UniProtKB/TrEMBL annotation:
Main location: mitochondrion
The name this protein goes by in its record: NADH dehydrogenase [ubiquinone] 1 beta subcomplex subunit 10
Function: Accessory subunit that is involved in the functional assembly of the mitochondrial respiratory chain complex I. Complex I has an NADH dehydrogenase activity with ubiquinone as an immediate electron acceptor and mediates the transfer of electrons from NADH to the respiratory chain.
PANTHER family in UniProt: NADH DEHYDROGENASE [UBIQUINONE] 1 BETA SUBCOMPLEX SUBUNIT 10, NADH-UBIQUINONE OXIDOREDUCTASE PDSW SUBUNIT
One Pfam short name: NDUFB10
Membrane topology of the entry: Peripheral membrane protein
Gene designation per UniProt: Ndufb10
Entry's Gene Ontology cellular component terms: mitochondrial inner membrane; respiratory chain complex I
Keywords (A to Z) from UniProt: Electron transport, Membrane, Mitochondrion, Mitochondrion inner membrane, Respiratory chain, Transport
Chain intervals for the UniProt region annotation (Disordered): 1-20
Cellular compartments annotated: Mitochondrion inner membrane
This protein's record includes keyword Metal-binding: no
Protein family according to the UniProt entry: Belongs to the complex I NDUFB10 subunit family.
Length: 172
């Protein structure tokens, strides 16, 4: 009972449009010119650069910096040494911050995993976090946002002097 005229079967092949003019299509002409003038040279240069980079890969995330002298080892007026020591101090501070954060995440994961038994089963992680945070606080605490290698060195010097004074008072 289907009405074949209402639901005609589509043609099996799409008909090719007949060209009505002998003038070439300007869009195709500009596409071809663009391809040969702009796209092909850019593609060639990019592929050549990628081949050169593939020969000697540089993994920036495995970059290893050489250790530079500490600020206390720099000579007076050696501004390059001061700058390198400051950069080294900043890298060390970032590494120490990441160490504290990793230990904190491990303790949090242990607490989440153990649930009510966290005080028994996570004591080792809690002790490690206490040690790491104390060491970080001893070295970088109270420096503030604008802390630098010189203020950190002075803080450590004052702390060592206080410890010696306390030892001298205790021995008397």
């Amino acid at each position: 009972d289907s009405d074949w005229e209402a639901y005609k079967v589509p043609p099996t092949r799409t008909p090719v449009s007949e060209r009505t003019t002998s003038v070439p299509n300007p869009v195709a002409f500009f596409q071809t010119v663009f391809n040969y003038v702009v796209d092909a040279p850019v593609t060639f240069v990019r592929e050549w650069i990628e081949r050169q980079q593939a020969k000697n890969k540089f993994y920036y995330y495995h970059q290893k910096f050489r250790r530079v002298p500490d600020l206390s080892e720099c000579l007076e007026g050696d501004y390059l040494c001061f700058f390198e020591a400051e950069a080294q101090w900043r890298r060390d501070r970032m590494v120490d911050q990441e160490i504290v954060e990793i230990v904190r995440e491990r303790l949090g994961a242990c607490k989440q995993r153990e649930g009510p038994n966290q005080f028994q089963n996570c004591a080792k992680e809690a002790e490690l976090l206490a040690q790491v945070t104390k060491a970080y606080q001893d070295r970088y605490g109270d420096l503030g946002v604008h802390g630098n290698a010189r203020t950190c060195l002075m803080k450590q010097k004052h702390r060592m002097m206080e410890e010696r004074k306390a030892q001298a008072n205790a021995s008397q």
